[in-house]
């Protein structure tokens, strides 16, 4: 990011709040987001952070600790505050103020109560429920391919966005991830992130149904990168914001259950469906939570760490420190299977 693109925290927050106003958000929503982002601006000013383009995960962790102490926040309040900041940072990613993936470094504390809970990881059982719902009601759709690939491959959202239709090999049943920075679709780890991902039969059938029956062709004028993306909208390659909203929609319980587990009226809920603010639904799962859940799922299936590391482009140490959600007993039982009785 060049210095010409640097943006002050106050300017970025003003842009964000203007976007919310243009989307006709409720006044209480605007007031809440203005209040929460105001603390972030204050922290930036107090710590001398005048350029958001230099912000990194360590800075956001420092803010998390500062905000908890400054506001004497309990876990519920901290979750609410940090959720808003993560939505704000996602906006900053979308408009090029901060680096892609920065929002995923914000760790939201998990709150478990009778009325509010949110998993930081998508569990296998819930993933299966979502995929079965899509297979029954929306087979071979954009959302079906999106969720199937995110769960089965554990790939990053930006990697899925970067794929062209030619990167899918139906005969070999694999996907080839390619780093194309000059064409606007870089991989997070550059050329080192390039890899071939094997697919199962069912996933291939879903992809092929999507390509044959539901994939949208965009005009040359609309498709600005002049390539043929695998996942498309009528305007060409979807943005990360669009993909993220589709993930939010697919992980909202009301979409597959037909009712809200929090007793909200669906015709009045601002978080329902694709529009407005689905990221504020307490039950949605973010793309990185799916990736984390996928890693844990394959570990529980006894897939070697080395295989997962190569397939998902993540080091063994990162898997062990940040992705593995197995408890100690589960790990012990799995180790027992590799040790011969003596």
Describe this structure in words.
The protein has 342 residues and is an all-alpha fold. The protein folds into 3 domains: 9-105, DNA polymerase, domain 1 (Orthogonal Bundle); 124-219 and 227-288, Intergrase catalytic core (hpI Integrase, Chain A); 290-340, no CATH class. It is built from 14 helices and 3 strands. The protein has helices at 9-22, 27-46, 57-71, 75-94, 124-137, 142-153, 157-162, 201-214, 240-250, 253-257, 287-300, 305-312, 316-323, 328-336, and strands at 168-169, 174-177, 195-198. Strands 1-2-3 form a 3-stranded antiparallel beta sheet, with no helix packed on it. Helix 1 (9-22) runs antiparallel to helix 2. Mean pLDDT is 84; it is low at 113-119.
What's the short story on this structure?
With 342 residues, this protein is mainly alpha-helical.
Keywords:
DNA polymerase, domain 1, single chain, hpI Integrase, Chain A, 3 strands, 342 residues, 3 domains, globular, 3-stranded antiparallel β-sheet, mainly alpha
- Structural class, by secondary structure, is mainly alpha
- Taken as a percent bin, the fraction of beta residues is under 5%
The helix fraction, in percent, is: 40-55%
Radius of gyration: 21 Å
Overall 3D shape: globular
CATH-scheme architecture of the largest domain: Orthogonal Bundle
Report the biggest beta sheet as strand number plus sense, adding barrel if it closes: 3 strands, antiparallel
Q: Give the rounded overall mean pLDDT.
A: 84
Q: What is the terminal separation in angstroms?
A: 59 Å
CATH topology of the largest domain: hpI Integrase, Chain A
CATH superfamily of the largest domain: Intergrase catalytic core
Going across the biggest sheet, name each strand in turn. 1-2-3
Contiguous runs where pLDDT drops below 50 for at least 5 residues: 113-119
Number of domains: 3
**N-to-C SSE string, H for helix and E for strand:** HHHHHHHEEEHHHHHHH
- CATH level 1 class label of the largest domain: Mainly Alpha
Oligomer: single chain
> How many DSSP-defined strands?
3
> How many separate helices?
14
